[in-house]
Q: What sequence folds into this?
């Protein structure tokens, strides 16, 4: 993959994310009377649980790489962390697959497309975790230095450019998806159907 991708995409993604936050801020509705909200589906709960585990693993390496290295110094702890992360990834995959199929069946193609992208990203993460084992150990040495260089506005993709294609793809597409996050409405709301509940459930009760 060209070095330009690694130096340009993060900042384009950050620009899109800022635009998304601004749009959300400007278009927020005035406070209304609290209305009953729909419960999340089983798939929605799986997504929330799985995403929490996966996000924690991703964030820990980025925010506290030394602590993660120290934690992973014991093979038993490394194995446990990898196993828990993989369970989180599979939970996320399963939940996203359920939600995407539901939206396809309901003919809601916009929501289905967005969920489908998250599903593909999670699939690439699980493929990566299974094919290149002990990811939480090499993540802090290969991907985290690149991410930190991006945050320091001195992007250096020397190591990432030599990593397997799946690592490069998962990292760059992850940034693109994170940029789209402000455009996603996940919390159950009474007016229209958010991503983690179904229209059918919203009308029930
Ligand atoms: C810049 C953004 C991202 C980077 C640098 C990144 C990096 C990584 C790395 C290095 C792994 C392997 C970890 C391991 O084997 O322990 C991984 C796994 C994974 N990633 Fe990401 N990722 C990013 C964004 C995302 C996003 C947005 C999602 C969800 C939509 C996601 C979902 C997953 C999943 C499900 C796994 C497998 C679970 C696991 O074992 O940790 N990633 N990611």
A:
């Amino acid at each position: 993959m060209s070095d330009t991708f690694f130096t340009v995409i993060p900042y384009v993604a950050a620009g899109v994310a800022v635009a998304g936050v601004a749009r959300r801020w400007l278009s927020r509705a005035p406070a209304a009377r609290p209305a009953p909200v729909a419960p999340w589906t089983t798939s929605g709960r799986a997504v929330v649980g799985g995403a929490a585990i996966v996000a924690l693993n991703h964030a820990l390496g980025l925010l506290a790489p030394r602590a993660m290295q120290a934690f992973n110094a014991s093979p038993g702890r490394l194995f446990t962390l990898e196993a828990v992360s993989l369970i989180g990834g599979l939970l996320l995959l399963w939940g996203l697959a359920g939600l995407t199929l539901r939206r396809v069946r309901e003919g809601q193609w916009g929501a289905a497309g967005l969920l489908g992208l998250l599903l593909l990203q999670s699939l690439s993460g699980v493929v990566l975790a299974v094919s290149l084992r002990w990811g939480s150990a090499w993540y802090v040495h290969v991907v985290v230095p690149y991410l930190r260089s991006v945050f320091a506005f001195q992007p250096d993709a020397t190591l990432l450019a030599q990593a397997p294609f799946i690592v490069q793809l998962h990292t760059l597409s992850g940034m693109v998806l994170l940029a789209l996050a402000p455009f996603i409405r996940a919390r159950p709301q009474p007016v229209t159907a958010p991503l983690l509940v179904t229209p059918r459930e919203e009308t029930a009760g």
